[in-house]
Protein backbone atom coordinates (compact mmCIF):
# COMPACT_ATOMS: atom_id res chain seq x y z
CA UNK A 1 0.00 0.00 0.00
CA UNK A 2 1.11 3.56 -0.60
CA UNK A 3 1.67 5.59 2.54
CA UNK A 4 -0.04 9.00 2.43
CA UNK A 5 -0.46 11.84 4.87
CA UNK A 6 -3.97 13.23 5.31
CA UNK A 7 -5.53 16.11 7.15
CA UNK A 8 -3.31 19.10 6.36
CA UNK A 9 -3.74 20.51 2.88
CA UNK A 10 -3.37 18.39 -0.26
CA UNK A 11 -2.60 14.76 0.53
CA UNK A 12 0.92 13.80 -0.31
CA UNK A 13 3.19 10.84 0.14
CA UNK A 14 4.90 10.91 3.49
CA UNK A 15 8.52 11.95 3.17
CA UNK A 16 10.99 9.85 5.17
CA UNK A 17 12.70 11.79 7.98
CA UNK A 18 15.99 13.33 6.95
CA UNK A 19 18.76 11.69 8.99
CA UNK A 20 21.26 13.86 10.82
CA UNK A 21 24.55 14.43 9.10
CA UNK A 22 23.15 14.35 5.57
CA UNK A 23 25.87 15.51 3.18
CA UNK A 24 26.16 16.47 -0.44
CA UNK A 25 26.41 12.75 -1.22
CA UNK A 26 22.69 12.26 -0.70
CA UNK A 27 21.60 13.56 -4.14
CA UNK A 28 24.10 11.18 -5.75
CA UNK A 29 22.83 8.30 -3.61
CA UNK A 30 19.24 9.06 -4.55
CA UNK A 31 20.11 9.32 -8.24
CA UNK A 32 21.96 5.99 -8.15
CA UNK A 33 19.02 4.30 -6.42
CA UNK A 34 16.56 5.72 -8.95
CA UNK A 35 18.68 4.50 -11.87
CA UNK A 36 19.08 1.07 -10.31
CA UNK A 37 15.36 0.88 -9.54
CA UNK A 38 14.35 1.64 -13.11
CA UNK A 39 16.70 -1.03 -14.45
CA UNK A 40 15.60 -3.58 -11.84
CA UNK A 41 11.89 -2.89 -12.29
CA UNK A 42 12.24 -3.17 -16.07
CA UNK A 43 14.18 -6.44 -15.79
CA UNK A 44 12.21 -8.22 -13.06
CA UNK A 45 8.91 -6.34 -12.85
CA UNK A 46 7.72 -3.91 -10.17
CA UNK A 47 6.29 -6.56 -7.85
CA UNK A 48 9.01 -9.18 -8.33
CA UNK A 49 11.90 -6.74 -7.87
CA UNK A 50 13.25 -6.59 -4.33
CA UNK A 51 14.81 -3.77 -2.38
CA UNK A 52 17.89 -5.96 -1.98
CA UNK A 53 18.25 -6.23 -5.77
CA UNK A 54 17.93 -2.47 -6.17
CA UNK A 55 20.50 -1.79 -3.45
CA UNK A 56 22.93 -4.33 -4.87
CA UNK A 57 22.68 -2.84 -8.36
CA UNK A 58 23.13 0.68 -6.99
CA UNK A 59 25.99 -0.31 -4.71
CA UNK A 60 24.31 0.93 -1.52
CA UNK A 61 22.94 -0.57 1.68
CA UNK A 62 19.32 -0.94 2.77
CA UNK A 63 20.00 1.86 5.23
CA UNK A 64 20.84 4.20 2.36
CA UNK A 65 17.67 3.08 0.60
CA UNK A 66 15.40 3.74 3.57
CA UNK A 67 16.98 7.12 4.23
CA UNK A 68 15.61 8.14 0.82
CA UNK A 69 12.48 6.07 0.23
CA UNK A 70 9.93 4.49 2.55
CA UNK A 71 8.64 1.90 0.06
CA UNK A 72 8.84 0.66 -3.52
CA UNK A 73 5.69 2.65 -4.28
CA UNK A 74 7.35 5.87 -3.14
CA UNK A 75 10.40 4.96 -5.22
CA UNK A 76 8.26 4.46 -8.32
CA UNK A 77 6.53 7.81 -7.82
CA UNK A 78 9.93 9.50 -7.58
CA UNK A 79 10.81 7.81 -10.88
CA UNK A 80 7.50 9.03 -12.32
CA UNK A 81 8.24 12.64 -11.39
CA UNK A 82 11.83 12.41 -12.64
CA UNK A 83 10.70 10.95 -15.97
CA UNK A 84 7.98 13.60 -16.35
CA UNK A 85 10.39 16.44 -15.63
CA UNK A 86 13.02 15.07 -18.02
CA UNK A 87 10.51 14.53 -20.85
CA UNK A 88 9.00 17.99 -20.43
CA UNK A 89 12.44 19.60 -20.28
CA UNK A 90 13.64 17.88 -23.46
CA UNK A 91 10.54 18.96 -25.34
CA UNK A 92 10.75 22.51 -24.00
CA UNK A 93 14.37 22.81 -25.11
CA UNK A 94 13.51 21.55 -28.60
CA UNK A 95 10.61 23.98 -28.95
CA UNK A 96 12.57 26.92 -27.57
CA UNK A 97 15.16 26.32 -30.31
CA UNK A 98 12.57 26.90 -33.06
CA UNK A 99 12.59 30.05 -35.13
CA UNK A 100 9.38 32.03 -35.59
CA UNK A 101 8.92 30.51 -39.05
CA UNK A 102 9.10 27.00 -37.59
CA UNK A 103 6.20 27.55 -35.20
CA UNK A 104 3.72 25.44 -37.16
CA UNK A 105 1.34 22.77 -35.92
CA UNK A 106 3.11 20.15 -38.03
CA UNK A 107 6.53 21.02 -36.57
CA UNK A 108 5.20 21.11 -33.01
CA UNK A 109 3.54 17.73 -33.53
CA UNK A 110 6.78 16.30 -34.90
CA UNK A 111 8.72 17.38 -31.81
CA UNK A 112 6.03 16.08 -29.45
CA UNK A 113 6.09 12.71 -31.23
CA UNK A 114 9.74 11.96 -30.56
CA UNK A 115 10.37 8.82 -28.51
CA UNK A 116 13.72 8.39 -26.78
CA UNK A 117 15.50 5.02 -27.19
CA UNK A 118 15.33 4.35 -23.43
CA UNK A 119 11.55 4.89 -23.27
CA UNK A 120 10.77 1.16 -23.51
CA UNK A 121 12.12 0.43 -20.02
CA UNK A 122 10.03 3.23 -18.55
CA UNK A 123 6.95 2.05 -20.41
CA UNK A 124 7.29 -1.45 -18.96
CA UNK A 125 7.59 -0.09 -15.43
CA UNK A 126 4.81 2.49 -15.57
CA UNK A 127 2.39 0.07 -17.23
CA UNK A 128 2.86 -2.47 -14.46
CA UNK A 129 2.43 0.16 -11.76
CA UNK A 130 -0.73 1.43 -13.45
CA UNK A 131 -2.16 -2.10 -13.28
CA UNK A 132 -1.19 -2.18 -9.60
CA UNK A 133 -2.99 1.13 -9.06
CA UNK A 134 -6.13 -0.11 -10.80
CA UNK A 135 -6.29 -2.95 -8.27
CA UNK A 136 -5.37 -0.78 -5.26
CA UNK A 137 -7.61 2.28 -4.70
CA UNK A 138 -5.08 3.99 -2.43
CA UNK A 139 -2.28 3.57 -4.96
CA UNK A 140 -4.67 4.82 -7.66
CA UNK A 141 -5.47 7.92 -5.64
CA UNK A 142 -1.80 8.81 -5.21
CA UNK A 143 -0.88 8.04 -8.83
CA UNK A 144 -3.78 10.21 -10.01
CA UNK A 145 -2.34 13.20 -8.11
CA UNK A 146 0.98 12.80 -9.92
CA UNK A 147 -0.83 12.38 -13.25
CA UNK A 148 -2.80 15.54 -12.50
CA UNK A 149 0.36 17.58 -11.97
CA UNK A 150 1.85 16.27 -15.21
CA UNK A 151 -1.32 17.15 -17.14
CA UNK A 152 -1.34 20.64 -15.66
CA UNK A 153 2.23 21.18 -16.87
CA UNK A 154 1.37 19.84 -20.33
CA UNK A 155 -1.75 22.02 -20.54
CA UNK A 156 0.13 25.14 -19.43
CA UNK A 157 2.95 24.56 -21.89
CA UNK A 158 0.61 23.70 -24.74
CA UNK A 159 -1.33 26.92 -24.23
CA UNK A 160 1.88 28.98 -24.38
CA UNK A 161 3.23 27.14 -27.42
CA UNK A 162 -0.01 27.51 -29.34
CA UNK A 163 -0.09 31.24 -28.62
CA UNK A 164 3.36 31.56 -30.14
CA UNK A 165 2.02 29.71 -33.17
CA UNK A 166 -0.88 32.18 -33.31
CA UNK A 167 -3.52 29.69 -32.16
CA UNK A 168 -5.55 28.77 -29.09
CA UNK A 169 -7.38 25.66 -27.93
CA UNK A 170 -11.12 25.39 -28.50
CA UNK A 171 -11.42 22.49 -26.04
CA UNK A 172 -10.59 22.07 -22.37
CA UNK A 173 -6.80 22.06 -21.94
CA UNK A 174 -6.80 19.31 -19.32
CA UNK A 175 -8.93 17.08 -21.54
CA UNK A 176 -6.60 17.68 -24.47
CA UNK A 177 -3.62 16.81 -22.26
CA UNK A 178 -5.38 13.53 -21.43
CA UNK A 179 -5.75 12.89 -25.17
CA UNK A 180 -2.06 13.54 -25.77
CA UNK A 181 -1.09 11.11 -23.00
CA UNK A 182 -3.55 8.49 -24.26
CA UNK A 183 -2.19 8.79 -27.80
CA UNK A 184 1.39 8.44 -26.56
CA UNK A 185 0.76 5.51 -24.22
CA UNK A 186 -1.64 3.68 -26.52
CA UNK A 187 0.67 4.09 -29.48
CA UNK A 188 3.68 2.84 -27.55
CA UNK A 189 1.77 -0.23 -26.36
CA UNK A 190 1.22 -1.25 -29.98
CA UNK A 191 4.67 -0.16 -31.14
CA UNK A 192 6.52 -2.25 -28.58
CA UNK A 193 4.49 -5.31 -29.63
CA UNK A 194 4.86 -4.62 -33.37
CA UNK A 195 7.90 -2.34 -33.72
CA UNK A 196 8.38 -3.08 -37.42
CA UNK A 197 4.76 -2.44 -38.36
CA UNK A 198 4.37 0.60 -36.10
CA UNK A 199 7.61 2.36 -35.11
CA UNK A 200 7.42 4.26 -31.80
CA UNK A 201 5.95 7.73 -32.27
CA UNK A 202 4.49 7.04 -35.71
CA UNK A 203 0.84 7.24 -34.62
CA UNK A 204 1.46 10.64 -33.05
CA UNK A 205 3.30 11.91 -36.11
CA UNK A 206 0.41 10.83 -38.32
CA UNK A 207 -2.56 12.02 -36.28
CA UNK A 208 -1.41 14.71 -33.85
CA UNK A 209 -1.27 17.49 -36.48
CA UNK A 210 -4.92 16.79 -37.34
CA UNK A 211 -5.93 16.74 -33.68
CA UNK A 212 -4.22 20.08 -33.14
CA UNK A 213 -5.82 21.58 -36.24
CA UNK A 214 -9.29 20.37 -35.24
CA UNK A 215 -8.98 21.48 -31.62
CA UNK A 216 -7.51 24.96 -32.12
CA UNK A 217 -8.31 28.19 -33.92
CA UNK A 218 -6.36 31.23 -34.99
CA UNK A 219 -5.92 33.96 -32.42
CA UNK A 220 -7.40 37.38 -33.13
CA UNK A 221 -4.99 39.66 -34.96
CA UNK A 222 -2.14 40.70 -32.70
CA UNK A 223 -2.60 37.78 -30.32
CA UNK A 224 0.37 35.70 -31.45
CA UNK A 225 3.55 35.86 -29.38
CA UNK A 226 6.01 34.03 -31.60
CA UNK A 227 9.14 35.62 -32.97
CA UNK A 228 12.07 37.59 -31.69
CA UNK A 229 13.22 37.16 -28.13
CA UNK A 230 9.74 36.11 -27.01
CA UNK A 231 10.34 32.60 -28.38
CA UNK A 232 13.31 32.12 -26.05
CA UNK A 233 12.53 31.47 -22.42
CA UNK A 234 14.10 29.68 -19.53
CA UNK A 235 13.37 28.45 -16.04
CA UNK A 236 9.74 28.75 -14.96
CA UNK A 237 8.93 30.56 -18.22
CA UNK A 238 9.90 27.60 -20.42
CA UNK A 239 7.28 26.75 -23.00
CA UNK A 240 6.29 23.50 -21.31
Automatic annotation (TrEMBL):
GO molecular function, one term: transcription cis-regulatory region binding
Biased composition range(s): Basic and acidic residues: 230-240
Keyword Repressor on entry: yes
Alphabetic keyword roster: DNA-binding, Repressor, Transcription, Transcription regulation
Gene3D superfamilies found in the cross-reference section: Homeodomain-like, Tetracycline Repressor, domain 2
Pfam families according to UniProt: TetR_C_6, TetR_N
Name of the featured protein: HTH tetR-type domain-containing protein
